[in-house]
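ok trying this again, last paste got cut off
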Amino acid sequence: MSEELIIGHAAEAGTDFLIYTGNYCGYCTAAKRLFEQKNLTFKEINFDENPDIRNDVVTTTGRRTVPVIFDLRGETPMYIGGFDETNSYLKK
């Protein structure tokens, strides 16, 4: 079910990126600000507001920290990583 959950969120998003976040996360705020600066749309899903999905996302990505970011601009969602990876990815 783990991967299907993310694919479902991506299909519903209708945005450039999907970002899983947490409350009081400076890197989450920085990632959202980066998307806004680059005029890229994103759908945010907060783990603190949706704690039941965290384990599925961790199982799928292996990432235990937030943010967890996917690029939705291709045919299938592409896992990027966190803020540092996304910042580097968008400079390419």
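PB: full thing came through this time. The two ends are 33 Å apart (CA to CA).
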